[in-house]
Amino acid sequence: MSKINSFEELTVWQLSRELAKEIYAITQGEVFFKDYSLRDQINRSCGSVMDNIAEGFERGGNKEFCQFLYIAKGSSGETRSQLYRAFDRGYINSNEFEILKEKVENISKQLSGFIHYIKKIRYKKEKNL
Question: Which domains does the chain have, with CATH numbers?
Fold first, then answer.
């Protein structure tokens, strides 16, 4: 793997950004827009995914980065749960729900893999001391 110089280069951050844009666009619809609390909460949680990836990257240490990636993963779970509420309330249709849920699940899986990779690197570095 080549050296990554900024969080913007991370595929998982890019996917999280795209998801945040899509969810924001959907929440601007007339039906969804009236449910202020769910609209704001789902926008905050999906934004938290990309923000925590960025913040963890900028911290500089692998241990801290992993902590922030775990928080991002938790936020992706929260977003997925809120998608169920949006679907159950009729704010999104089944097609929109399935597409967005699949994207969130993909991000969560990528975060898990990335965490595993970083822990493996850290373990190797600690063993070489």
Answer: 7-127 (1.20.1440.60)
Cβ-based neighbours of 27, under 8 Å, separated by 6 or more:
33, 39, 42, 43
Q: What percent of the chain has a predicted confidence (pLDDT) above 90?
A: 79
**pLDDT of 3:** 81
Buried-exposed string 76-95: b where 16+ CB fall within 10 A, e elsewhere: bebbbebbeebbeeebbeee
Q: Per the structure block, which two tokens stand in for 127? A: 């063993």
Q: Provide the 10 A C-beta neighbour count for residue 32.
A: 18
Which tokens belong to 119?
């822990």
Percent helix, strand and coil across the chain, each to the nearest 5: 85, 0, 15
pTM of structure: 0.90
Does the pLDDT of residue 71 top 90, yes or no? yes
Query: What does the pLDDT look like over 77-114, one tens digit per residue?
Result: 999 999 999 999 999 999 999 999 999 999 999 999 99
CA atoms within 13 A on the CB side of 7: 19
- Whole-number Å distance between alpha carbons of 52 and 16: 10
